[in-house]
Amino acid sequence: MEFVAVQFLNGLASASSLFLVASGLSIIFGVTRIVNFAHGSFYMLGAYMAWTLATRLSAGPLGFWGAIIGAALAVGVLGAALEVTILRRIYRAPEMFQLLATFGVVLVVEDLALLIWGPADLLGPRAPGLRGAVDIFGQRFPEYELLLIAIGPLVLVLLWLLFYRTRWGTLVRAATEDREMAAALGVDQRRLFTAVFFLGSVLAGLGGALQLPRETINLNMGFATVVEAFVVVVVGGLGSVPGAYLAAFLIAELHAFGILVFPKITLVLIFLVMAVVLIVRPHGLLGRPFVGLPASVVSPAAVLRPSSPAARWVGAIGFVALLAAPFALGDYALTVATEIAILVLFAASLHFIMGPGGMVSFGHAAYFGLGAYAAALVASRLAAPMVAGLFVAPVVAGLAGAAFGWFSGRLSGVYLAMLTLAFAQICWSVAFQWAELTGGDNGILGVWPPAWAAPAAAYYYLAVALSLSAVLLLRRAIRAPFGYALRAGRDAPLRAEAIGIDVAATRRIAFAVAAGSAGLAGGLFAFFKGSVFPTYLSIPRSVDGLLMVLLGGVNSVSGPVIGAIVYTGLGEQLVRFTDYWRLAMGVAIIALVLAFPEGIAGFAARLADRRRGAPAEDAR
Amino acid sequence: MSVLAVRDLAKSFGGVQALAGVSFEVAAGKMQAMIGPNGAGKTTCFNLLDGQLRLDAGRVYLAGTDITGLPTRRIWRLGVGRTFQIAGVFASMTVAENVQTVLLSHRRRLAAFWPRVADLYRDEALDLLAQVGMAEQAERSCGVLAYGDVKRVELAMALAHSPRLLLMDEPTAGMAPGERMALMSLVAGLARAREMAVLFTEHDMDAVFAHADRILVLDRGRLIADGSPAEVRTDARVRAVYLGSDAVAEAG
After folding, report:
1. Mean pLDDT, range A460-467, rounded to an integer
2. Alpha-carbon distance A507 to A487, whole Å?
3. Cβ A490–B77 below 8 Å, yes or no?
């Protein structure tokens, strides 16, 4: 009994930390509609800055608390600076581009932190006056944790007062409810957005800084936190601060007790909860549907025109280059080319649902990884030939996609994206924790192709043949009636239903097709690498896919192909030439987003149209 | 037999009774207007008829078949076309592709992954567009059309599956006065030529009295008149509802 009580208090302390980060994220999303991936980086920066300040300032309470407050405010200024320098320029771009920009910031911050603070974990000072522990039900409980427990509700009350008792708060609530209406009422959006970014970032920085006496500070804490914060925000309801506290409480307690009751599925538990909440209450526990939140977050789309003669020539030359590559490239370059060929299919499969479907997936790696695991399991456990593995991969992934898609058919926008993330994390957790089947963290090794496909050139041709065929089929489907049905559902769902289209069913089919294609890519990848690991289904791989699609251009059929080549090629080169490849990649992503808000392929098409003198309206 | 028969339709939102006990019929080849002040329940009625809203009570028959409570897409397949108050077209498609998509849906070919849409039902789509005067703009993107043109594309889309009943919610809203009359004449001609029943709402009383064969008047969710333009014009209750505007008395 005593143990349960203490565990409950532990949960409460974690809930406070989680709430600080999540409430900031929720406020920023509520007003600006930006899915701010950099929020976790601000949390991490808050911790690092507090460490620097606390170790420089006097050791007394003034120094410690001064460091905490100073770090939070400094992070707030950084958040406002991010809004002013980068995000403000792309508010008119599709929402996913803002996400892409914030992801660039994540990469930049991670490497800057590495440059400034080094790779080693840092241990902060303990809070002066709160170093001891108190006796609760005969168990020792740290005083600092008690303080944390109090801080969460305190901040909740302060935020409530700010939102419901000040004029500024009223404006923020108005903008959260209906952005257009708030603008029509004369709210200065630029100042409001900057201020909201400041407030949200202060909360993230404070959340990070308060971790100083609790845990070591490291470069990974940002990403882990932002994912959990997203879960909290979505479960609580986007834009709802009380919802964020409720969800933080639920999830922290779930963690605290889940680890006792179901130690095997702790990682999966919070994502299971998120999935259930989204299915039962699509707008979160305390959330309400947003006014003016588009069903699709990747609009506005342009008309698909037949490929221009120039584009056909580029395609033909590219095809010849693909065939000739093994004769021109060395073994290393050929493996890079093979990897790119596989990832092109991965990107194209994601584009299929994101572009024509208007459905953003944050968890597309699930299908890639399921395909890889299916192929590897068939090959290693059943000792079946590679061909069987490559056949099973898309089937398994496609079935999983059909199953997940069945739940997702009615959701849209960010909620759908978060549900896909939940499914992906569930798959990842299974791969990670079901060690008897999957080998857990050690993965499955020795998944090699048979002799005929073993040489680098042979496997290259195999990968290119399968990937290219699948990409061309997807491309064809976009220009076929099915693609039009999908786009109809994206452009105007009510109109689509009013001409006999079952929009949800169409989306589910698209989901299954995209998942199957990603699964084939995963199967190819498994035999290419000779092994599979849980990282194949992890969030970074899903983000890779998103980056490829967005870099190439969502509204362009050739976008994912170009995006995958540029992203993978760039990454490969950067890793070879610099230790700080994340910094370079992040800067490159931000620059690309600012320069080409319609993606590389979209920009090229516009350029070509301008040269032809075609009307800008049809820029493709 | 009438194409559409509505019996005791009722719908409330929260405590507000949007429609109560509304019954009427629409005959083939006839233009039937539904008028009434803002908030009278016209759009609600349309959304009940085509299945976008669930009705609380009442029955809807299409050519004798009970279509009450069917989903929108089923009702469409049974031959009910619809244009929206705020026109809904597929902005990422050309004018022709919008109509081709409807034709593909009508022929149940939208599940096909292989054929190119560019080659499918194109002539038929251009025919329909010619009927509404949009053939010249067939290759333009629907996302950049003038609003009046969007409304005409929407009409072509609504006509594509040769509906028995066409529901038009404020077909001329946002159009210039000259355009309004032209569009209504066009629809009236099509209704007669195709033996199609048309039920439309409209705020422009000139357009209503010039083209309607029969007029329904709704007020606060109740049907207060149902008759020929001449009967409605002289109806005391209608005049009371429109009191002060004289719109009904002077129109036509």
Report:
1. 96
2. 10
3. no
